[in-house]
Amino acid sequence: MSKDDAQGLARGLTNYGDRDFSIYLRRSFASSMGYSSEVLKKPIVGIANSFSGFNNCHRHFPEMVEHVKRGVLLGGGLPIEFPTISLGEVFLSPTSLKFRNLMAMDTEEMIRAQPMDAVVLMGGCDKTVPAQLMGAASADLPAVQLVAGPMMTSRYGEERLGACTDCRRFWGKYRAGEISGDEIGDVEGRLATTSGTCAVMGTASTMACIAETLGMSLPGTAAIPAVHADRLRAAEASGLAAARMIANPIRPSQVITAKSVENAIRVLLALGGSTNAIIHLTAVAGRLGIPVSLKRLNELSDETPVLVNLKPVGQNYMEDFFFAGGVGAVLRELKPLLHLDTISVTGETLGDRLEEDPGYVDRRVIASADKPLEPQGGLVALFGNLAERGAILKRSAADASLFETEGRAVVFSSLEDMAARVDDPDLDIAADDIMVLQNAGPRSASGMPEAGYLPIPRKLSSKGVKDMIRISDARMSGTAFGTIVLHVAPEASIGGTLALVRTGDRIRLSVKDKRIELLVDEDELDRRRADWVSELVPPERRRGYDRLYAAEVLQADEGCDFAFLQPVDEN
Ligand code: FES
């Protein structure tokens, strides 16, 4: 067997300068784990398991991985599980996004360095699925994405609770003095009560639906609840599909194409999905040299209806979406808008998939295309002197009465400044002002946190103000809602116009024209730009991963990937 068609344990040998010695030593050490020589002749399916005690969403992975292994064995492969970094959304400081690229690098390099013929990627919590897809796209070994599945909802009195839209809703009530400290303590214990990812159409659920639409997950698997027996069957089927791909390799580069990426954007828009997903999809597609343009996003958004009635935009939860028909039902409604010749990891085309019997569809959760919830997509990109490279507004989660507005800016120069002043009773702010947060983008010290959902100042929230226009270079949790302009690029920390805004300036938002403008004349902006000084600590005064991140992270419109992880032209 030549080096190039080596399979299983003979792939990618450790370099001792003697190939036969390398195989002999590897077989010997593998035998120490109890494998028979017969088993060690099998092709290998690696299982990238992102279980961690710091990741509640992946709590059930030890059970799920056993079912993946059974599927691999059924397909004639040898399953070998390996750990990668895990990113538990609420356990990471300053923010999980900062470490997404680290997990992508870990996943890519361990797929490439270890002897496997295909891989199953077990992820779920927000950043883990994009990290695994980015790594798998770069490694370009046959891969199947298996997601954790969403949590089940819980109850508080007569109310149904699901992380994390209800987390924010109750926190808002607590801040406004509508519920007591004891009550918020009770709610805290009931928001997240099973394993799995957040129970609404947040980032994790949106990315699960995108992975299925791209074709990287098995059809019908994105929305299965984490604790449902179908989740274990999906695990088995994913292991089997990966093993089958060894004889008929289908590489991520054949699945993630310009067409499947465009299908994924359509689904993102129809879901009213998370704003974070556009960053992640841009990063995944970027690994294969596929650009995602915000101008194209707007074109697709103008002609793609919102169909899915899930929180934070609507009323329902992921378990309802699963029983209502899931991603397949959404794809069927979007069929005339989709590229049907894309393929999934099974080799089946999307067109063939959509020929199958649709089964029951609950129209209270998934609307038909002729009676959509909204005629246009959930996300819109804004451009103007305040965001020359674009910004994102989730219009489906915003207050339409604020869409054509001019207002006075009230500026917070950093997260710390905001925390110190936002609840100050003397803060000079009114309900029709526009809140601006600076220095919370990808290069900032805060690492682009989900802080774009600026809290309504207590002096206003206590008077019943529920929404205001808020603008920043930060992100927003996929589970949040409000009239919130995010991902402003270029960001304030590198001297984007956002850095030049001062309290008292006028800002105009027009969703109709897709514009966001700072109404300050150019001469004055030039003066401010000349006076602007970067407060960033330069990469050479940092160390370790922090240094790599500071030197390499790209802006939001480029997916916040690292520049050196982009594909290179090898010619
Ligand atoms: Fe993991 Fe929300 S905390 S998906």
Task: Please describe the topology of this protein.
Blueprint: H1 19-31, E1 44-49, H2 61-74, E2 78-83, H3 97-113, E3 118-123, H4 128-139, E4 143-147, E5 154-156, E6 159-161, H5 165-175, H6 181-188, H7 203-214, H8 229-247, H9 252-255, H10 258-271, H11 276-286, H12 294-303, H13 318-324, H14 326-334, H15 350-353, E7 379-384, E8 387-394, E9 404-412, H16 415-421, E10 434-437, H17 458-461, E11 469-472, E12 484-489, E13 506-510, E14 515-518, H18 522-531, H19 544-552
Parallel strand pairs: 1-2, 1-3, 3-4, 9-10, 10-11, 11-12
Antiparallel strand pairs: 5-6, 7-8, 8-12, 9-13, 13-14
Helix pairs in contact: 2-8, 3-4, 4-11, 5-6, 7-10, 7-11, 10-11, 10-14
The site of FE2/S2 (inorganic) cluster has 10 residues, from loops.
Q: What brief labels describe this structure?
A:
single chain, 571 residues, alpha/beta, Glucose Oxidase, domain 1, 3 domains, eight-stranded mixed sheet, four-stranded parallel sheet, 14 strands, 34% helix, binds FE2/S2 (inorganic) cluster
How would you briefly describe this protein structure?
This protein has 571 residues and is α/β, with parallel strands linked by helices. Helix content is 34%, strand content 13%. Bound molecules: FE2/S2 (inorganic) cluster (FES).
